[in-house]
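Quick board copy: two proteins, each given as sequence then tokens.
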Amino acid sequence: MGRMLIVTGIVLIVMGLLSYVVPLFKLPGDIRYEGHNIKFYFPLVTCIIISIIITILLNIFRK
């Protein structure tokens, strides 16, 4: 269990750094709204893809 948490944490840190440095995660299907005084961005498709990747990695490390 501890190893899975460490791997998950490292993956999340790397993905967070990548998304901060290089905005690769702006996929079609992500919700963007820009009004007069507000900007809202919710990466819906990106969250789904990240969830699938983390699920696959956890299943690999579990075996």
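And the next:
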Amino acid sequence: MNDVKIGEILRPGSGYEQRSREETVRARFWKTARKAAKSIPFLDEVIAGYYCALDPATPMRVRGTLLAALAYFVLPLDIIPDFILGLGFTDDVAVLMAALSAVRNHITPAHREAAKKAVADIDREH
């Protein structure tokens, strides 16, 4: 997946696009995270990014970038559909890594602590 495509995916978008993405992410995130738990080795960072994206104290541009990446993650049909065993989350991983790298300084210790607890809950479910 090339940088140009990732850059297009991670555009924060308008206020309307951000609200739409937030609704999609809120509705589908946890189901997708559970499904991807074994496929994404940095799931704790993805979940911390989720909490950062929903935090009203996070700058709008950062929220927009994270919501764009998380929306790509939760939508089942993307460049490599998520249902393809062994490959389904590879494009999602690239997009998530790019977004998390770009906004890492905005993910707070509180976001990471909440993610740590959530990962422990996901681990207990498996």
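Board note added afterward: The radius of gyration is 13 Å.
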